Amino acid sequence: MNRFSDTASASPLTNPLLLVMVLAAFTSVLNNSMVNVAIPTISRHLEVSPSLAGWVITAFSIVFATGVALYGRVSDSYSFRGTFLAALVIFGAGSLTCALAPTFSYLVAGRAIQAAGAAAIPSLAFGSVARLFPPGRRGVVFGTLSSAVGLGAAAGPLVGGLGVSAFGWRVLFYGTLAVIGILFIAAWRFLPDLNAQREPQPHRFVRLDLPGGLMLALGAAALLYGVTAANHVGLAAPRAWGTLILAAAMLAGFALRIRTAAYPFVPPALFANRQFLSASGIALLSQGAFIGGGLFLTPLLLINELGLSAFQTGLVIAPGAFAVALLAPTIGRLSDKFGPRAVLGISLSCLLTGLLFMSSFAVGAAPWLVAVALVIASTGYAGVTSPAANAASKALSAEIAGVGFGIYQLFFFMGAGTGAAVFGTVLSARQRLGDAAFNPLYAGGKATAAFSDAYLVACVAVLLALVLLAGLGRADSVSSDAARGRE
């Protein structure tokens, strides 16, 4: 039995490849979530405004969201192991740049470099599962990866708060660099080259279709930046509508490119596959509703309206994050047994219940009610991530698993970025008007009515995700030659 099949038959809890990917996923999320709590300290130390300091997060998010598809495509044609190791080197170089940054500009540049390396982790991790594990066993593995993501999100604020308080904000990046070093050694030792058994492909560089990939990356980056700018300066500002027009032009160019190129960045048939589009749409909408809605709006509610400290806010949010970490593997196993569609239906309904409870009863009430609402929503979200990835994997053949999951992860992270901007815009608009809440069940005062409306919009996003369940069924996998007919 070769190494490929050995990996496929190994238990997920003892599989060295999976352990490397779990640690990598945990590190990438921890790196971002722990930096969030350091923004006020960074702002004071480097003497920049709080709004400008937000670019420490924005720069990472834009590069990260747009890099996942590029790494997936590279790993389909070149060494999986080599791609992952190169990405860790870039991730480490960015971490060192951040740790040594003498000015704010250097710090933002370092964060962008960090993201350029960290972007490899989700697409390569999920893509490797689609290659190495049979369809009936992928759910539990996706759940294990999702658990690592949830644990990183939960531990980040606590680790970041303790580190900043004890040693200053730079220790966060030195700590990330140390973990990356351990990851590099483990990856060098345990990761297989998933393309080693394939016949050497002629014109591998041409097959990458870098022009198509760059158009997709620039289009996604411009879209994310444009939506974010519209939230801060308004849609009428040239910076907002200009980048949105650029995004539309780049994405239109990408659509034309994959239909005309001899070796397109991704097979056009992938975007005609109902299973893949439905799973990706569910990921985008649920991620936007939970991350952009629940986790973005809740700290603003707790700190600005209820007067809690950052540490107290972390305590309110932590139970929900730990619920994701604890439940994701079990729910992933259920998606293997009963199918992704059935599990997604129950999970999205649970996510909807939590957000509706937040909009109706928790907003403006005691913090413990907010925590209860988040635990309900988090339980639902834990049941969305791995089954949605499992459903998407059914539409992907092994030879395009990397780029396919890169596209899927692009939808996933774009949901978080655009969701925060959309719900932030709704919140600001409703606060300016000062009207009563739209939700007839809301019994709080006008001071927090805008939050009730923003959470209600998040509920609409989940309802749309429930509609997309109709697109999940029997999937025909898409190959690299599908709908192309020429070599």
TrEMBL record:
It is found in: Membrane. It is a multi-pass membrane protein. One of its GO terms (cellular component) is membrane. Residues 17-477 form the Major facilitator superfamily (MFS) profile domain. GO terms for molecular function: transmembrane transporter activity. InterPro entries: MFS (IPR011701), MFS_dom (IPR020846), MFS_trans_sf (IPR036259). Keywords: Membrane, Transmembrane, Transmembrane helix, Transport. It holds the Pfam family MFS_1. This is MFS transporter. It comes from Salinisphaera orenii MK-B5.
